[in-house]
Amino acid sequence: MKRIAVLTSGGDAPGMNAAINAVVNKADDLGIEVFGISRGYQGLINNEIYPLNTKKVQGICRKGGTVLETARSQEFRTKEGRKKAVEVLKSHKIEGLVVIGGNGSLNGAKVLSKMDSEIKVIGIPASIDNDISGSDFSIGFNTACDVVTKALDNIKDTALSFHTSNEARIFAVETMGRERGWISILAGIAGEADLVIVPEKRSSFAKVVNRIKEIIKAKNDCVILFSEGITNADNFVDQLEAKLGHRVRSTLLGFQQRGGVPTITDRILALRMGVKAVESLKAGESAKMIAIKGDSVKTELLENNDIGTGSYDYYLDMFKHKVMGL
Ligand SMILES: Nc1ncnc2c1ncn2[C@@H]1O[C@H](COP(=O)(O)OP(=O)(O)OP(=O)(O)O)[C@@H](O)[C@H]1O
Ligand SMILES: O=P(O)(O)OC[C@H]1O[C@](O)(CO)[C@@H](O)[C@@H]1O
């Protein structure tokens, strides 16, 4: 393997830059040339490709987002688009490609790996949603949880300061994560939310309301964390106010969860995965994804699924009275 390329695709995630840095530095160690591709698969189709070296990626580990920029590409979903992508890689004599992205990007990597046996493709899971099967954690998830936990810490200061007021204080905070409640559950436990509502559990709206009433009766405040993937997430707070007859103060953290300086945990995860991806290409592997399992970084087959695995049930069951679903 003499020449490889790296791209980032789909939603950006904090730590993607550390993965790029590791790919370039490990390739340098092994005497492999590296090219960067801008704007994901669309940039690849458009031949937006340039040489990278260790100097160019110096100091990027601390940066959020991705220095390669990212995109979602309809054209790459077509066979014609993917053919163009292969032609571009071949025209630059690229023998291996590292795709850093979420489950869609990794599905794209799998399809690309079937196009031409001379081009090896390895995926690195990077998404704040942690919804990628095969790896316990994806790059960016830890940073997103950190943002949400810190927001909860701040909100709880107000909640606890109003314990003796006449009016019960109720706060509702929405998290990202698409159909998965990973961010809610981990940040909820760490930030001591009183109630976490995730899409994976089933309950009724009436039961959720009753649980909130119990919490208020017991301590006069309630901090609720709910996932964007629950049923009727958009109207959840309005419906709660109507049923409870109380004000519910709402916080939408939105894209704050996807950006910002990556935590050391995300940086180390990304660095380990970047190194493993280059080693895997060097060993001639293809159609594989880098995964963290327990404390080990491994290669797994790229599978066409998008539900995320890891030890999710363990966290859901830690404090049963604090977790409900809708
Ligand atoms: N089945 C597929 N076949 C070919 N390409 C795909 C496929 N699925 C996704 N892609 C490519 O990967 C790109 C990124 O996918 P997607 O928009 O689902 O984001 P993602 O990687 O899952 O990130 P996020 O975690 O932000 O959702 C798509 O725009 C498309 O170009
Ligand atoms: O607006 P966009 O870029 O499609 O991203 C929104 C989605 O991306 C994610 O942040 C994952 O990257 C989801 O949690 C969220 O719903």
TrEMBL record:
Domain Phosphofructokinase per the UniProt entry, residue ranges: 3-280
Example of a GO MF term: identical protein binding
Top EC class, one word: transferase
Protein's pathway: Carbohydrate degradation; glycolysis; D-glyceraldehyde 3-phosphate and glycerone phosphate from D-glucose: step 3/4
Keywords assigned by UniProt, alphabetized: ATP-binding, Cytoplasm, Glycolysis, Kinase, Magnesium, Metal-binding, Nucleotide-binding, Transferase
Catalytic activity: beta-D-fructose 6-phosphate + ATP = beta-D-fructose 1,6-bisphosphate + ADP + H(+)
UniProt-recorded name of the protein: 6-phosphofructokinase
Enzyme Commission identifier(s): 2.7.1.11
Keyword Protein biosynthesis: no
One GO cellular component, as annotated: 6-phosphofructokinase complex
